[in-house]
Amino acid sequence: MIKESLEEVRENIRQACRRAGRDPKEVTLIAVSKTKPVPMLREAYEAGARDFGENKVQELAAKKPELPDDIRWHMIGHLQRNKVHQVIGKAVLIHSVDSLRLAEQIEADAARKGLDVDILLEVNVAREESKFGFFLEETEEAARTISAFPHVHIKGLMTIAPFVENPEENREIFKKLYQFAVDIGRKNIDNVTMDVLSMGMTGDYQVAVEEGATMVRVGTGIFGAR
Ligand SMILES: *Cc1c(COP(=O)(O)O)cnc(C)c1O
Fold first, then answer.
1. Ligand 1 site, CB within 6 A
2. pLDDT, the chain, mean
3. Which of 24, 45, 101, 162 is the most exposed, fewest CB within 10 Å of its CB?
4. pTM surpassing 0.70?
């Protein structure tokens, strides 16, 4: 069942790419496995999934040793500063850097461990009160500040779009973040690239791909309801 769901999501991504004139190789599907047990992740792995997303440090740390080494783990949830040290060296990418203080903590822990950490800045494009992340107008300044951190490397942006019935309602949000990433990328800030755009979830990933997402985070659509 997970195999069929994965295939369906992959096919939807291919079709969205076709509609947008994009190469499907530009889009990484992250299987969001939070709350799901290890055997379900193994099933996804056997069906070819190699990128998994978790939103809790403890859960990521517990699942990782149970599964093959070639899995790329993505930290996608709000991260508390006192948990940062547990995720460094385990996640290939932290999508959810939502404050300067968090970035400073990552720099401090990464320096201590002598590791480099790739991150995305989380942007609250829709300015929802319930969401974490920088507002668009704060993001460039944050990127410039973090660009000076020697162990932290900004690879792009992430957003969690509002929960909507019709994914078309989020198209403008995805367009806005894409354009913003292009604009920041053109400024050639040292130690900052805008190659990754992490946007789109089960309800709206096809629209996100049409609007330029390079990573989509799909949980329910692969593993079923939580
Ligand atoms: C849970 C979660 C997802 C996946 O949500 P689905 O709607 O189940 O696809 C994606 N991104 C983040 C940050 C999440 O916390």
1. 32, 34, 55, 76-77, 160, 201-203, 217-221
2. 98
3. 101
4. yes
